[in-house]
Amino acid sequence: MIETQEKILATAERLFGEQGYAATSLRHIIAEAGVNLAAIHYHFGSKEDLLDQLVMRRAAPVNTERLAMLDRLEAEPGGPPSVEKVLEAFLEPPFRRISEFPDLIKLMGRLYGEGLMTVIGEKHFHNVAIRFLAALGRALPHLSQAELRLRGQLVLGAMSHTMFYVPVSGSKASVDGAVLLRELIVFLSGGLRAPAVLPERIEEK
Amino acid sequence: MIETQEKILATAERLFGEQGYAATSLRHIIAEAGVNLAAIHYHFGSKEDLLDQLVMRRAAPVNTERLAMLDRLEAEPGGPPSVEKVLEAFLEPPFRRISEFPDLIKLMGRLYGEGLMTVIGEKHFHNVAIRFLAALGRALPHLSQAELRLRGQLVLGAMSHTMFYVPVSGSKASVDGAVLLRELIVFLSGGLRAPAVLPERIEEK
DNA sequence: GTCTATACTGAGATAGAC
DNA sequence: GTCTATCTCAGTATAGAC
Question: Nearest Cα to B64, choosing from B84, B93, B88?
Fold first, then answer.
């Protein structure tokens, strides 16, 4: 069946989001999906490859949107776009999807800490990171390259932690995705605009 | 031997920090420590309990220092301590130890994403979080309780991501712990001081 | 091309001998 | 306190049925 792949993807997406990648066994996935264990390896190769395809199925359109929004911003006259605009182009596409794919968003947040985002991220997000870091640099000329990269990591940290930890549609204090987005943009642009503290260049490579 | 416990703790601390908790097997630990597999379960109960004890052995003095620094700040005359001072009391104790325990610091950063900090954190860090959130609230009277908690999460996200990702004594662009500390304080206080965006109270509980 | 049955290796955990 | 043997369950690999 061609539906086997889809059943595996949908079930794995849900279980990974609910329990995390490491805590979810392939046998749990196949039990809930009603497929055979070997079907996963036939269609996806390995557990890690399943995760990769699962993440990229949702993340690819997000990255396309991010770059399109950045393109539009940079085509506007009046100098380089502001920090807030750049952050919005980066954060709005994922956070708009929180209500539609809450488990997937939470999973993405998890992956940073599970150390898996290093692998997946390097493969699929590198060009996005380059583009946005450059745009941030033009909006923040007072920062050196080294300090800009450092602060870019802080942005990623706050973003991924938000995706994972903040209850978005859960039981307790649920927070709207749009509210989270505004909060992140205000907080992070405040941090990015702070004065430079690295007076000179950090040792490179 | 009483040294068995210590050998296990030291080896596990190193391996967990290098490879992460999930990726490190007990059999790998015992091989490098030169002890028997069952010794881990005898002395620590389980892999997760080993992690717990290992983390708290280093984190307990850090938390004691944090609270002592906060006590001193709040005893000073002249109104509530500034955001920067509160952040320094929270961040300086762990970041000062980066050169001494780089693996442990990296491990702590990992744990947030591996979902294990929720368990360990709730048990051992709750009182610290309460105290520092209250101190931040007094320094930031323009924020509602809900927005304060939200921004507190962003602080934790940036901090843990920094502990995990930023190369501190590694191969590439190594960054000094003191530099990271200053960068974090400047960035996070800039974010925390940003204007409020939640006009009213968020649905509670 | 798809899927199933089964086996292999390595994981954490535990009971019991010493 | 320590160690051997063993249990269950994980991810993976493959032979072969449809």
Answer: B93
Closest to A112 (Cα-Cα) out of A49, A147, A50, A155: A155
Confidence bin at B173 (pLDDT 50/70/90): low
Query: CB B146 to CB A205 under 8 A?
Result: no
CA distance A117 to A56: 12
Give strand C nucleotides closer than 7 A to any protein Cβ. Answer: 2-7, 10-16
Using a CB-CB cut-off of 8 Å, the residues of chain A touching B199 are: none
State mean pLDDT over B146-155: 96
Q: Which two tokens stand for residue B68?
A: 């002592």
| Residue B200 binned pLDDT confidence (cut-offs 50, 70, 90) | low
CB contact under 8 A, A192 and B190: yes
In this complex, the residue of B150, B175, B190 whose CB is nearest that of residue A190 is B190
Pick the CATH number of B56-196 from 1.10.357.10, 3.40.980.10, 1.10.405.10, 1.10.10.10: 1.10.357.10
Report, in ranges, which bases of strand D sit under 7 Å from a protein C-beta: 1-5, 9-15
Mutation pick from A19, A118, A122, A154 vs chain B, by most beta carbons of B within 10 Å, is: A154
Are A197 and B204 a contacting pair at CB < 8 A? no
**Cα-flanking dihedrals φ and ψ of residue A25, to 5°?**
-90, 155
Domain extents for chain A?
56-196
> What is A135-148 written as a DSSP string?
HHHHH-TTS-HHHH
Residue B26 approaches strand C within 7 Å at CB: yes
Q: Report the pLDDT averaged over residues B84-109.
A: 93
User: Do the chains contact at B161 and A153, CB–CB below 8 Å?
Assistant: yes
Q: Is the pLDDT of residue B174 over 70?
A: no
Q: What is the pLDDT of residues A121-171, one digit of tens each?
A: 878 899 999 999 999 999 999 999 999 999 999 999 999 999 988 776 654
Instruction: Look up the pTM and report it.
Output: 0.92
Task: Enumerate residues 6+ apart whose C-beta is below 8 A from B31.
Answer: none
Cβ(B186)–Cβ(A193) below 8 Å: no
Residues 44-73 (B) near nucleic chain C, CB < 7 A: 45-48
Residue nearest C15 (alpha carbon to C1'): B38
With a cut of 70, say whether residue A202 has pLDDT above it. no
Three-point CA angle A87, A90, A183, nearest 5°:
50
